[in-house]
TrEMBL record:
Organism: Halorubrum salipaludis
Domain ABC transporter: 4-234
Signal peptide location: none
Keyword Nucleotide-binding attributed: yes
Alphabetical keyword list: Amino-acid transport, ATP-binding, Nucleotide-binding, Transport
Transmembrane segments: none
The protein's name in its UniProt record: Branched-chain amino acid ABC transporter ATP-binding protein
InterPro entries found in the cross-reference section: AAA+_ATPase, ABC_transporter-like_ATP-bd, ABC_transporter-like_CS, BCAA_Transport_ATP-bd_LivF, P-loop_NTPase
Gene Ontology MF: a single term: ATP hydrolysis activity
CDD domains: ABC_TM1139_LivF_branched (cd03224)
GO BP field: L-amino acid transport
């Protein structure tokens, strides 16, 4: 079963075209699919388009066989595509628990069970359930953002730069969690840490100047001369 099929997607803001003929496929049995590329190349724009926040000018997006190109963000979440955005978008003056509850707004009945699963995966969130989200450390906030995404019971979880702004050791802990999550949920991973992302990925896409310029397995991409020269040091 194909989880996500993107065909010839063109997206822009006013006169500025950002994505050109982007096509990609994510299979339901993929654990991690990575999207890598330089700053400002359109990765976040692609994530926003897939999650129904930005409308494409042309092209087609199919989620689990359903054409969702014109769906709004809520409909896309209810079909199982959940995005954790780069800025995390936490409610800083609300508790960890309340933030997690917000994530489950479409699944109130199963809230308790899902909450237990998220607490099990991120024990630090259980410990700090009553603490305001805004007072958590950067790493803890990232865990909370991912935990809140999981509360929406995604089939496909998109993570936009989950290791962004974290110290290397914390970033590594986030990657370990992503690996754990990907046993149950397909993860679309947008990352600056190209080597780590490709290492985790079953398949990967390189986005440059708004176009997919290379695609392959994570291993193939790691061995590509262009990827090594442009994005991997040493
Ligand atoms: N709301 C907007 N209005 C106008 N232009 C925008 C808007 N959002 C993004 N852009 C432009 O679109 C281009 C792609 O931005 P985008 O954030 O998608 O890139 P990115 O690959 O995610 O970059 P980064 O890795 O730095 O986050 C940039 O030139 C950016 O200035």
């Amino acid at each position: 079963m194909t989880m996500l099929e993107v065909e010839d997607l063109n997206v822009g803001y006013g006169d500025l075209q950002v994505l050109w003929d982007v096509s990609m496929t994510i299979e339901a049995d993929d654990d991690v699919v990575a999207l890598v590329g330089p700053n400002g190349t359109g990765k976040t724009t692609l994530m926003k388009t897939l999650s129904g926040i930005v409308e494409p000018t042309s092209g087609r997006i199919e989620l689990l066989g359903e054409d969702v190109s014109a769906y709004d963000a809520d409909e896309i979440v209810s079909l199982g595509f959940v995005q954790v955005s780069e800025g995390r978008n936490l409610f800083g003056d609300m508790s960890v628990y309340e933030n997690l509850r917000m994530g489950a707004y479409q699944h109130r009945d199963e809230f308790k069970d899902t909450l237990e699963e998220v607490y099990e995966m991120f024990p630090v969130l259980a410990e700090r359930r009553d603490q305001d989200a805004g007072t958590l450390s950067g790493g803890e906030q990232q865990m909370l953002a991912i935990g809140r995404g999981l509360m929406a019971q995604p089939k496909l979880l998109a993570l936009d730069e989950p290791s962004g702004a974290l110290a290397p050791q914390l970033a590594e802990r986030v990657f370990e969690k992503i690996e754990e999550i990907s046993d149950d949920v397909t993860v679309l991973l947008v990352e600056q840490h190209v080597d780590r992302a490709l290492d985790l990925a079953d398949s990967a896409y390189l986005l440059e100047n708004g176009r997919i310029t290379q695609a392959g397995t994570g291993q193939e991409m790691l061995e590509s001369d262009h990827v090594r020269d442009a994005y991997l040091s040493g």
